[in-house]
């Protein structure tokens, strides 16, 4: 048979194969665009150098001492901002969650005044809030869009990074198994 | 003429091809052409032109993770601006280009590099464009040579032939044979669309609808499977508990707790008949306890699909006679009146139910909607509902995660305030009755640890420390686990001031395993023990130890600080 008629079919098959492979990898969720894999997982959490929000102004712009603040327990670091809608939406769930796991809030490029209104309106689930004024800390943590939520082990290792709104489903399917594993 | 038209035709198609090429080229290279419209602002730039040039080159190789298909050099996204600043900061620190790429790659992963590195996982990515180009060239060459061959063939034929009559049939013949050759075989004609159809169906089934892409079928079915499994596990667990309770009842059918347990587990697996049976037996064994009466009334009502039966009604009356504030019985009385059409009575009964429960308890919502329903069908305004208001306990504030706050006298205040509507004499009578029943029951089941604790609490609420102390000593004999031991220590510490209890606490603490004794909650209890026997220094030391280990801003820490401050004075 003439190559002219085999070629288009061949090309079609190749394209179908490639898109099939791509689709399967999307299906398996390993290359989802909204959930970029973080290379920081399994590594020591970078320092949180933040301006303290609220009462203890004295300790501004020094790295937070997780051990002293929380003790030998896993905890959560949540990057948020008063100007971000999903951040508002996730607050009620975070409030529930904070009864089980302490949460440190990092307000990304936020103003204290706006933050105060936000916390009053939507609630304050955070054990401590620090302001990341120039976004440098966020870059150090590989944050590419807020809200982002990190689970840190009692040894200060990043276990999970979740980009996007924190929901009960996300907590149950992704966070809870790891937390239970750590508690054992 | 034909020749001229032919030339024109090919000229037009060539022109179209060139135009299309230009359009494609513009589209492809527009980022380069439009480079002047870059996002970077003057204030971001570095003073040193060499460094600035390096910064631009590096930025062009870094992906903006927000827009994902642009470099940070082109993007106006907030993150891109920050990353550009970061790159310039790195440059100021004398970092090499490789080091900068590496540093950002460590934070954001491979994806931050706009051109992915050549490695096995990305071979396909790199080779695919080249392969497609190669295929394209082959295709073009094939077409080109075929056309050339064709031209030459027809040219030589034109030369040979002298008249139009000869050319036409021969060229017609040639064309026919050519199209015959070019004919796609029927099998492919038929199978190809079928193949496409099957492929698309397969992709559709695998992925679900395209707009559901972010929650693919596999994930969804997995979630459903986990949910189903959870439900099944729970049902299995409930069934197991039911069977265990049943076995226990068969072993000692005269045991009230066994029957009661059976009723509770039967309710969990939804077997109302078993529940009613077990509750009836429990009622007999308990010597017609009013609380069991109201429970039985509820079960009977559920058995009758929510209708309060005559048997249930008489049980409700009896239960209310003994305890006019039996929440369950009161609610059922309201339901009964509602079903009889006596809306005023229903509302009254439900309103008095409401005064006994907290506004956020599970029954509260039911009550609200029930009262509203009764009021509407009676054509009156929905009355105000007054719920019980108790001082909020510290437990719910702290999430109740350990026993630290359990040692809190306000708990007893709460329990007592539930009776505050009764007169003092009535309260005492009520408690006395309860205590009498409880101690009778415990004489038959001295192994019931929590029963003894309950008895001790009851005695304590009547300020009868001696009896409470006796009950706690009996509880000490019924201890079967560390959990029991801790509960006992807490109860004993709460009743304080008795020498025999101090001894009891000391003994029980000594019996706890070391690992538990190091825990904060036990340390707290131990501190309380030392405080009670007057050794304030040891108490302060133990509590300060805890303070060092818990978050400094929590409520627990504040409570502890207060306690320590009080002791220090």
Question: Would you list the SSEs of chain A in sequence order as H and E?
Answer: HEEHEHEHEHEEH
How far is the first residue's CA from the last residue's CA of chain A?
66 Å
Task: Give start-end ranges of low-pLDDT stretches of chain A.
Answer: none
Structural class of chain B: mainly alpha
Radius of gyration of chain A: 21 Å
Identify the CATH architecture of one domain in chain B.
Alpha Horseshoe
Using the alpha-carbon principal axes, give the shape of chain A.
Answer: elongated
Give the number of DSSP strands of chain A. Answer: 7
Largest interface: A-B, 47 and 49 residues
Outline type of chain B: elongated
Helix content range of chain A:
40-55%
- Indicate the multimeric state: heterodimer
Write the CATH fold name of the largest domain in chain A: Glutaredoxin
Strand content of chain A: 15-25%
What proportion strand of chain B? under 5%
- Proper CATH architecture of the largest domain in chain A: 3-Layer(aba) Sandwich
CATH topology (fold) name of one domain in chain B? Serine Threonine Protein Phosphatase 5, Tetratricopeptide repeat
């Amino acid at each position: 048979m003439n190559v002219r008629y085999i070629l288009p079919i061949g090309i079609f098959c190749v394209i179908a194969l490639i898109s099939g492979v791509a689709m399967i990898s999307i299906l398996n969720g390993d290359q989802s665009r909204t959930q970029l894999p973080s290379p920081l997982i399994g590594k020591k959490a970078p320092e949180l150098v933040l301006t303290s929000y609220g009462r203890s102004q004295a300790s501004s712009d020094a790295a937070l001492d997780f051990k002293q603040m929380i003790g030998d327990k896993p905890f959560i670091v949540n990057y948020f901002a008063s100007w971000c809608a999903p951040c508002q939406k996730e607050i009620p769930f975070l409030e529930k969650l904070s009864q089980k796991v302490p949460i440190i809030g990092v307000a990304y490029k936020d103003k204290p005044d706006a933050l105060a209104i936000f916390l009053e309106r939507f609630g304050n689930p955070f054990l401590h809030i620090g302001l990341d004024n120039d976004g440098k800390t966020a870059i150090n943590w590989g944050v590419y869009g807020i809200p982002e939520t990190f689970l840190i082990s009692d040894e200060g290792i990043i276990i999970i990074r979740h980009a996007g709104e924190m929901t009960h489903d996300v907590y149950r399917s992704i966070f809870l198994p790891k937390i239970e594993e750590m508690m054992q | 003429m034909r020749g001229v038209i032919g030339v024109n035709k090919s000229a037009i198609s060539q022109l179209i091809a060139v135009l299309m090429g230009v359009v494609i080229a513009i589209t492809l290279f527009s980022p380069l052409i439009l480079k002047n419209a870059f996002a970077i602002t003057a204030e971001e730039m570095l003073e040193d032109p060499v460094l600035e040039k390096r910064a631009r080159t590096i930025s062009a190789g870094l992906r903006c993770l927000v827009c994902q298909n642009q470099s940070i050099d082109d993007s106006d996204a907030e993150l891109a601006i920050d990353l550009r600043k970061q790159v310039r900061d790195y440059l100021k620190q004398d970092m090499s280009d490789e080091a900068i790429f590496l540093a950002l790659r460590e934070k954001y992963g491979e994806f931050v590099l706009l051109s992915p590195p050549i490695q096995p996982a990305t071979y396909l990515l790199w080779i695919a464009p080249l392969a497609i180009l190669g295929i394209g060239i082959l295709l073009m060459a094939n077409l080109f040579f075929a056309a050339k061959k064709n031209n030459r063939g027809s040219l030589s034929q034109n030369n040979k032939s002298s008249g139009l009559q000869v050319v036409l049939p021969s060229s017609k013949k040639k064309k026919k044979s050519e199209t015959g050759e070019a004919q796609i075989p029927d099998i492919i004609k038929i199978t190809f669309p079928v193949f496409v159809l099957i492929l698309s169906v397969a992709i559709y089934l695998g992925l679900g609808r395209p707009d559901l892409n972010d929650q693919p079928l596999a994930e969804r079915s997995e979630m459903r499977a986990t949910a189903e499994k959870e439900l099944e596990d729970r049902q299995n667990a409930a069934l197991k508990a039911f069977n265990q309770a049943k076995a226990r009842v068969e072993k000692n059918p005269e045991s009230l707790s066994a029957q009661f347990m059976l009723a509770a587990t039967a309710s969990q697996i939804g077997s109302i008949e078993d529940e009613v049976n077990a509750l009836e037996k429990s009622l007999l064994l308990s010597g017609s306890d009013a609380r069991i009466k109201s429970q039985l009334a509820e079960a009977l009502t559920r058995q009758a699909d929510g209708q309060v039966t005559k048997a249930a009604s008489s049980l409700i009356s009896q239960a209310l006679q003994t305890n006019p504030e039996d929440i369950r019985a009161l609610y059922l009385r309201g339901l009964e009146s509602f079903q009889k059409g006596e809306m005023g009575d229903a509302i009254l009964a439900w309103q008095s139910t409401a005064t006994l429960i907290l506004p956020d308890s599970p029954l509260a919502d039911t009550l609200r909607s029930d009262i509203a329903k009764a009021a509407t069908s009676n054509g009156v305004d929905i009355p105000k509902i007054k719920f019980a208001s108790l001082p909020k306990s510290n437990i719910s504030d702290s999430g109740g995660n350990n026993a630290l706050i359990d040692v809190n006298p306000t708990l007893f205040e709460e329990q007592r305030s539930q009776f505050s509507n009764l007169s003092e004499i009535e309260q005492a009578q009520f408690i006395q009755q309860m205590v009498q029943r409880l101690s009778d029951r415990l004489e038959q089941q001295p192994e019931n640890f929590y029963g003894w604790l309950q008895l001790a609490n009851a005695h304590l609420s009547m300020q009868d420390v001696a009896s409470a102390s006796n009950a706690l000593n009996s509880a000490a004999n019924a201890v079967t686990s560390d959990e029991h031991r801790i509960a006992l220590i807490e109860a004993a510490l709460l009743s304080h001031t008795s020498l025999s209890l101090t001894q009891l606490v000391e003994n029980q603490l000594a019996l706890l395993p070391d690992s538990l004794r190091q825990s904060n909650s036990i340390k707290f209890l131990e501190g309380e023990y030392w405080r009670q026997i007057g050794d304030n220094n040891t108490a302060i030391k133990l509590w300060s130890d805890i303070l060092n280990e818990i978050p400094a801003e929590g409520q627990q820490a504040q409570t502890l600080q207060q306690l320590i401050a009080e002791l220090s004075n």
